[in-house]
Design goal:
- The protein is an alpha+beta fold and 559 residues long.
- The chain has 12 helices and 12 strands.
- Helix content is 60%, strand content 14%.
- The radius of gyration is 63 Å and the shape is rod-shaped.
- The protein starts with a helix and ends in a 7-residue tail after the last strand.
- One of its GO terms (biological process) is osmosensory signaling via phosphorelay pathway.
- Pfam families: HAMP, HATPase_c, HisKA, PAS_4.
Length: 559
């Protein structure tokens, strides 16, 4: 910073030198004026005093001639004004005549008075000249001061402008850069620190512009890749802003919706899902039928994910998974199972009847080996007949062909009926049945179907609980529903199977096998047909489990 410092230092030194010069000139002028006044006063005052002394000596009684003679002699040696010498000589001549007795004392005093007045007049002139010179000095000093001040202001302004104007320009350009206009440059050819700063600023602007260009290129590339990825998806993808307006549609979504960008979603289900996702700040992806949306003869599974910063929502992404073909496959599978179960049930029933007749001796007495063989066949046929019956019941419930016959039933009576039917099995297994709170609240229920659900859940709990364990049943009242819980102290359920345990033919590895794995699927279908929900809970293997389902109270509108 030596160059800029040198400029500022030279400016200040110049101002200081100018002020010192003014001060020295004023001091010298006033010193000269003082000497002139002293010189005039020394000579004229002496003459005035001598003449006054002469007059006093002549007017005294008796006359002091020696004193007057001394004063006149001194005056002859102190001539300072024009004409003063002639007057002094005339004074001496008159005084000499006075001493010889021929002169007049009054005439001598008059001459002394003339000399006195001459010197007084000279003193007055000197005073006037001193005042005039003082005024001139003051005016000259004021003019010099004003000139110095103006010069100082001009020099200071030049120094300030030389230093600040580039800085002001630099600040303005920095504001431009801060607003995103990175093409700004400072055109300044200086070799001092300000020039160095300007060059550094220009270099920074160039680097920022290069960085932004590279970032924009990456963003454009990423945007194109995202667009290409979205366009390549077979499933419709819809992107909305925080107000629910369309901002992007891939080809599948364009052909499905046919809406221009910037408009709100016309499909009510989609708009509602977007609003829910934005308000709750979490993904909307229901597992039940509420996630299914029908559009243009197709069925889609809905999934809405919100997009947000740390402080505010940005929008949402809707993915519509086309499950039309899956639904068709599921429908065909259900029809096949229904037809196969129905067609197989007749011969199975016939075979079971034949086995029963053989056991009853309709064709003769059976030997012991024959009886064992026939009993094994009967057990297998009964298990097969139960499987077919459950498959038929499940397909009827899922297709809506066998809706529950709802009536107002006390929750306690449902639980009691199921407990009465399962006590013998619990006793045979050495498992205790515990009863918690059983509310008398009325629920909408098909007694036969719900008794089957409870019997199924209790039977599963008993089979998976070791001897000496406990199975507990309770039914508690909630404001709009009744919650029924079947819990046990048995083997528990691995966490990874909790979400799959209600699927068809699902078997937990290592668990006691008691059926084909349709019981929980059938229970789920029955509970959901009643307008309730069912879930499984377990802390892990060996820590027991609980199955919880809900039923709507009769106060709730019957559908």
């Amino acid at each position: 910073m030596q160059n800029l410092r040198r400029q500022l230092l030279l400016s200040h030194l110049l101002l200081i030198g100018l002020m010192l010069l003014l001060l020295a000139g004023g001091v010298l002028r006033f010193f000269h004026l003082g000497r002139s006044i002293d010189r005039v006063l020394d000579a004229n005052v002496k003459s005035v005093l001598l003449m006054q002394q002469t007059k006093d000596a002549l007017s005294a009684q008796p006359v002091r001639l020696p004193e007057a003679a001394f004063a006149i002699q001194q005056e002859l040696g102190n001539i300072t004004e024009p004409g003063e010498g002639e007057l002094a000589e005339a004074l001496r001549d008159g005084f000499d005549a006075l001493r010889t007795g021929t002169g007049d004392r009054k005439q001598v005093s008059a001459k002394a008075q003339e000399i006195l007045e001459l010197n007084l007049a000279a003193m007055r002139r000197a005073d006037a000249e001193a005042k005039h010179e003082a005024r001139q000095s003051a005016l000259l000093g004021a003019a010099a001061t004003v000139g110095a001040a103006v010069l100082a202001v001009l020099l200071a302004r030049r120094a300030v402008q030389g230093a600040l104007l580039p800085l002001v320009s630099l600040a303005r350009q920095a504001e431009e850069v801060g607003e995103g206009r990175l093409n700004q440059r400072i055109e300044l050819t200086r070799s001092d620190e300000i020039g160095t700063l300007a060059r550094a600023f220009n270099g920074m602007s160039e680097k920022l512009a290069e960085a932004r260009a590279a970032l924009e290129a990456r963003l454009i590339r990423a945007e194109r890749m995202n667009d290409a990825a979205l366009e390549s998806l077979y499933d419709p993808v819809i992107v909305t802003d925080a107000a629910g307006r369309l901002v992007h549609l891939n080809r599948a979504a364009e052909s499905l919706l046919g809406q221009p960008l910037g408009t709100r979603l016309g499909e009510a289900r989609l708009a509602q899902a977007v609003d829910t996702a934005l308000q709750e700040g979490k993904t909307v992806a229901p597992d039940d039928s509420s996630a299914l949306v029908g559009l243009k003869d197709k069925t889609f599974r809905l999934r809405v994910s919100p997009m947000r910063t740390e402080s505010e929502p940005l929008g949402a992404v809707i993915v519509l998974e086309d499950i039309t073909s899956l639904q068709e496959v599921d429908r065909l599978k259900t029809e096949f199972i229904s037809v196969a179960s129905h067609e197989l049930r007749t011969p199975v029933t016939s075979l079971l009847l034949s086995v029963q007749l053989l056991q009853e001796g309709a064709v003769g007495t059976l030997t012991a080996p024959q009886s064992q063989l026939i009993q094994a066949q009967r057990d297998d046929l009964e298990r097969l007949e139960r499987l077919l019956r459950e498959l038929l019941d499940l397909t009827k419930l899922e297709s809506g062909a066998s809706p529950p016959q709802l009536e107002a039933v006390a929750a306690r009576s449902l639980c009691t009926a199921a407990l009465d039917g399962i006590r013998a099995e619990a006793g045979a297994q050495g498992v205790s049945l515990a009863v918690g709170t059983l509310t008398e609240t009325l629920v909408w229920a098909d007694t036969g179907q719900l008794t089957r659900v409870l019997t199924n859940l209790l039977g599963n709990a008993i089979r998976h609980t070791p001897r000496g364990g406990t199975v507990t049943l309770e039914a508690r009242e909630l404001p709009s529903e009744v919650i029924v819980t079947v819990s046990d102290t048995g083997s528990g359920i691995p966490q990874e199977y909790l979400s799959e345990i209600f699927g068809r033919f699902t078997q937990v590895p290592g668990a006691t096998r008691g059926g084909a794995g349709l019981g929980l699927s059938l229970a789920k279908a029955i509970v959901e047909a009643h307008g309730g929900t069912i879930a499984a809970q377990s802390a892990g293997v060996g820590k027991g489990s609980a199955f919880i389902f809900t039923l709507p109270r009769t106060e709730k509108t019957r559908e």
